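== Folding the chain ==

***
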Amino acid sequence: MADKPVYVIPEDAQRMVGRDAQRNNILAARIIAETVKTTLGPKGMDKMLVDSAGGIIVTNDGVTILEEMEIEHPAAKMIVEVARTQEKEVGDGTTTAVMLAGKFLENAEKLLDQKIHPTTITRGYRLAAEKSQQILRELAVEINTEEELLKIAQTAMTGKGAEYVKEKFDGIIVNAVKLIAENGKINLDDIKIEKQRGQAIEDTKLIEGIVLDKERVSLEMPQKIERARIALVDCALELKSPEAETKISIASPEQLQSFINREEEMLKMMVAKIKNSGANVVICQKGIDDIVQFYLAKEKIYAVRRVAKTDMQKLAKATGGKIVSSLKELTAEELGYATQVEEKKESHSEEGMTYITGCKNPKAVTILIRGGTEHVIDEIERAIKDGLGDVAAALLDSKVVAGGGAIEIELARQLRKYARSLGGREQLAVEEFASALEFIPSTLAENAGIDPIDTLTELKAAHESGQKNAGLNLFTGKVEDTMARGIIEPLKVKTQAIASASEVATMILRIDDVIAARRSPRSGANINAMKEYE
């Protein structure tokens, strides 16, 4: 019996224990950080991602890169989750968060090699993360002017596809966020981003209303409606089919004609209800029968069908109308208002779009992005979303910090001072945490072709002499007061990145046993690839 193997877990399950498990997980995190590292900052490079169907994405947005990579390693997936959280909470800083998580783990490995227990390291990291949040709040400054919001939007877009038109886009972003702000709350879902190929990026504009990627249902309908009274209907403007199998007995041609006439009368009654409410525009979430289309066109009513539920909700916010589920409920009070509803069609495009503009105090707006190719437009969209996230975070929190690596260097300096006040081995963990923060300015310099060691030395010297906002201005290649130069970022970007990165790093460090059931040959190859890289 003693020689007989005892299987507690399946034979084909892979298991890594102790130092091997820690090393493998840390390696996976480092690979992820190295993957996105070259995209950081205004001089960062782009990645081309090609899927199995041949689809192409060209971007330097951290979360987009990681989501498209189809990562399988469990620890690497946890790092990707950091990027997702950063994107959801702030909308920007995803690359920073991932790089910090990778660097925290890389530096922790040095301590593990010195036989320092993972629990001691995680305790030190937690102390450092808490102290970082406190220091960040002390270093943050209040923003008072719109000019500062414009600078935040510009900083967010720098290094992305929209960089050379950031002076125009900053106004679009700030105005869009301010328009949808309601009772101190900002929901970025109220900003609809519509994309249209053709014309130049500079032709991107903010529309104080909603643009629908839909045409009017009939060419007989008017192309433009002035002083539009809009009915928002989420029921089908057609007769319902019986749910169960139904038989109708017809004995004569007259009965058949009567049946057809009755159907048409019911459809005409639908149009009459719309007309009587005073509506001259109908936006329908579901289908519109051909006969209803004919009578609507006859009454000079503009109609659009199969509009997405999310767009219906935005329309209600923009026009002040209410979405009705039955035409019986439709009255003048439920109608929304817009100065103009018009179908516009570009000469080169077959598809028209419906522009609903001139809304009174719209709480939902549209940013219409133009560009030469789909890939360009997609990257502009990502840049604008980063800007929207940063401006919204700054408006809600009204606090900003210096960019260009200034805040990371000052944090590292103050954390080292704090480490000296600690007893025990946690002091070493806090120092490694501080060193990891310096990875951000070092990478910014490296990506811009500037010597990272010289830059770090110069930055540290400036901060030691009391210049708290000394950061790297990559357009001049010099160390300057980045706050004064308008290179600023919302406090929320930094607090969220450090909190998420330190949490995932401490969680991964505490793992000393990985048991993985073999799912497919690919996952096995993935782990082997990790070992070969090591």
